[in-house]
Specification:
The structure is a homodimer of 204-residue chains. Chain A is an alpha+beta fold and 204 residues long. Chain A is 12% helix and 29% strand. The first copy, chain A, is built from 3 helices and 11 strands. Chain A has a 6-stranded antiparallel sheet. In chain A, strands 2, 4, 5, 8 and 10 form a 5-stranded antiparallel sheet that branches. Chain A is globular. Mean pLDDT of chain A is 94; it is low at 1-5. Chain A binds chain B through residues 53, 57-60, 62-69, 79-82, 99-101, 104, 106-107, 110, 136-138, 140, 150, 152, 154-157, and chain B through 53, 57-60, 62-69, 79-82, 99-101, 104, 106-107, 110, 136-138, 140, 150, 152, 154-157.
């Protein structure tokens, strides 16, 4: 990110409802991801800018954090166990998700949708394509603001976010990276309160 | 698997301590994975036999099962949300894991091991190479018999398995597939009771 890039002055930039954006960060820069309307899940991925095969991994991060959900001070790791993002601020109640796959065309078909439905998997691919990049796989995303409580018996539920409008998290880049954020278009289950909206980000 | 393949008569075949094996199954065949000595984790992957890019996915399976740990009757899905393995029998207390990455050379270095240490990621690669196959990524494994309890606050702990010698699970193939099982060589944390051992499998 250089000084003339969008968002480099800290002004919020839109993540349009149902769409994804890719942003380059250099090591030490931080990004604020804002739940502008309070009930929007933002599926988030990060990739080593020098090698897209190295990506943020929920299963490697959980192993190191010994937690299902990151908290301030935790560092997320890549699939090579290197630090990629540190969780430096969180003004939400701390409800996020690392367990659930990005939605995709197959998910909506199984939920009864006929024909095309926007989805986070395609949003990731489109956002990376805007930078001329492509991945072999869709890594499990960091689902910011997503509310999937784990019951005592390991049961999972899809619930609406509990964050309030304007609450945010700040993530610091631990390497030069590309971060992709998708304002999840899920409107069949309650994960976005049944109404996908814009979200915003800012380089801080 | 044809009638003359090892294990086709239901006789148990060894998964050597610290090593991995790859087995071809046709749709409808089932595999029994036996915790021979009771305290051995078996990292397990499954791949579409026709397209190794389609693999069993913990995050897609959790989304469909609405559970962290599969139970008898549950079906695990691929990264394209197609059924790949159904959990048809489980004589253990039902403690398994879907949250933790396969161990790898980086994990052991971070745990203080100097030099080579056997690991499940290399075991997967070696087992697939024995069939002339290779994957781009190491999917998050289904960690049979692994005991990583999730606390009420989402905290994770590495504990020894609670299964008894000879207890097993049976998984049925829902497509023609390759299953890879690695007798986890972890001897730095307690996940194998500090003593990696053989396990066994049988086609049933």
């Amino acid at each position: 990110m250089n000084a003339t890039s969008p968002g480099a002055d800290g002004a919020p930039i839109v993540i349009p409802a149902r769409r994804g954006v890719a942003v380059r960060l250099v090591q030490g820069e931080a990004i604020k991801v804002i739940n502008t309307h309070g009930r929007q899940v933002v599926d988030t991925w990060a990739f080593n800018r020098e090698d897209i095969g190295e990506s943020m991994s929920m299963e490697h991060s959980r192993t190191a954090m010994l937690k299902v959900i990151p908290r301030v001070g935790d560092t997320l790791l890549t699939n090579r166990r290197r630090p990629i993002l540190t969780w430096v601020e969180d003004t939400t109640p701390g409800v996020h998700d690392t367990l659930i796959a990005a939605c995709d065309r197959h998910r909506y078909a199984q939920l009864g949708v006929v024909g095309h439905h926007d989805n986070c998997t395609d949003n990731l691919a489109d956002a990376l394509a805007s930078l001329g990049l492509k991945t072999h796989e869709t890594p499990c995303p960091l689902n910011l603001f997503m509310n999937v409580p784990v019951g005592g018996d390991g049961a999972l539920k899809f619930e609406p976010p509990v964050s309030q409008p304007g609450e945010y998290v700040v993530l610091r880049a631990e390497m030069d990276l590309i971060i992709v954020m998708s304002a999840c278009p899920q409107d069949v289950t309650a994960v976005n309160g049944m109404m996908p909206t814009d979200a915003h980000y800012a380089i801080v």
